[in-house]
Every structure is written in structure tokens, then in C-alpha cells.
What we know:
This protein has 1 helix and 15 strands, in the order βββββββββββββββα. Helix content is 13%, strand content 44%. The strands form 3 sheets. Strands 2, 6, 7, 8, 9, 10, 11, 12, 13 and 14 form a 10-stranded antiparallel beta sheet that branches. Strands 4-3-5 form a 3-stranded antiparallel beta sheet, with no helix packed on it. It has one helix at residues 163-186; strands spanning 5-7, 14-16, 23-26, 33-35, 45-47, 57-60, 66-68, 73-81, 85-94, 97-109, 116-117, 122-126, 136-145, 148-152, 158-162. The protein binds zinc ion. Zinc ion is lined by residues 16, 54, 56, 58, 138.
Amino acid sequence: MERILFRPVKPLRINQAFAQNDACVSTDGKNRVITCDGNKPPVGFKSLYGAKGHLGVDLYATHSQPVYCALEGVVYKVDTDAKSGLDVRVQSTVDGQEYRHIYEHLLGYQPKVGDKVNAGDLIGWADNTGYSAGDHLHFQVEKYVSGKWVPIDPMDIMSTLYAQDIRSWKEILARGAELVADLLRKK
Length: 187
Ligand SMILES: [Zn+2]
């Protein structure tokens, strides 16, 4: 499978994999999140994800650690809700196939709705907003298939390259090209 996504955080460590079902949220209205067997939640709790399990991957991130865009696209939504906390949502098209990549539980965000973003651009900073048991990045990828957005395991299409490193290299190459152009002009 083609690896079109760049790593949004460094180092890349998975706290909770795609489709796993081992987080529960309290039903007392306090939204306390614990580790559990989501198929057999303890009394006073229900599965955080339901039967489908976790719709994204939870990546290790420290408080206020920068989160970078994994794939060139356009920001279509920035919002806050009880479950995902502050999230930024980006839509991309690769070879005619549409994808959405979603960054949840953020502390703050950088781009606005409608902004074009490149891989390696700052999306925001990691935190613990929404239903979350600690600082991390919930990274979710959806593919548009037969008229529906279907969550897929991002690890299946993620490259080993860090998005911010890609950006740095692009900047170094662009600066190199400018220097060469300057030298040619001075000849
Ligand atoms: Zn998650």
C-alpha cells in the first residue's frame, strides 16, 4: 500500500491502536475515562468507542507538543466537542481518492477553516481536551468509499518520515536553489 501520510508527531509511539476497544467513560456525567475491556465495561462505565472500537490511533505526545500536518490538503473544520475536545480536520485528494485526517484533543490550533496546509505545517499543540485520559494525539484518517467516510488504520498508509523533517528539507532545498540562482546572476 502506498504510504502517503507523514508522521504528525515525533517520536511515533502508539498508545492505543486502531479498532482497539479498551477505554471506558463513566456514565455519571463526569466523563471519567479509564482503561477497561470495552466489550465488558465495569459498573458505572460504558465503552468509549462502542462496538466498532477505536476509530483512529492514539499517538504519544506531551503537553503542548507541536502536531504537524500529515498530508497536503484543506482545513474544512475546526471545532470543540465533548468527545474529541479541540480538533482540526483536513481534507485531501490523492490520485482522485479523497481522505480526511483529523487531529483531536488539542490545546490550540494554527490554521483556519479554508486554509491550504502542507505536510509538515503546524496544525496545533497536543493536550488532553475532550474524552481523554492523558495528553496524547488522537489521529484519525477516513477514506471516502461508496458515498461514505470510512475510518481506516492510519498506520497502513503512514511513512516512517516525520512531517516536520520533510518541511525542513523542502526549505533547505528551496534555499539552496535561491543561492544557486544568486551565484548565476553574479557571474
Ligand atoms: Zn483516540
